[in-house]
Design brief:
mainly alpha, globular, single chain, 59% helix
Length: 132
Amino acid sequence: MPAALLAVLLASSLLARPAAADTGATVVLPDTSALPPAEARALLTQLAQVNVITSNCPAYALGDADWTLLTGTGDQLAAQLGLDASAYDRQVYAPAFRLLDDPGACDRVGPTAAGLIGRLRAMGGAAEGAGR
C-alpha cells in the first residue's frame, strides 16, 4: 500500500474518535478530511505556532483539553498530509519554534489561541472527559 494512501487511511480512522494525551484529557478531533491540502497545511502551521507559543508563554497557557485538541488535530493533519515525524518536525515545528526568537511573538500569537480552539470546536472537535 502506498505511504500516502496509508496516511490518508490513518487520518480518516482518527476522525470523530476520541484522542487522549498524557494529560488525562480526552477530546473528539474535528473532521479535517474535506480540507484542501493548502488549507490543511495552513491550519497545521497555525496549530504548531499556537502550540509553541501557548506552551512557552505562561500568559497564554492552555488547559489540558484545549491542548489535547490542538495537538491531536495537528497530528491528524500531519498524517492527512503524509508527513512523517521527521518532515513534521522539520517543516512545521522548526519554523514555529523560531517564533520564540521574536520578543513580540507571545503577545502577537497568544491571543489567537482562543479563536483557533473555537474553530476546531466548530469543525466538530469537543472535550469529552477530564481536563475540560
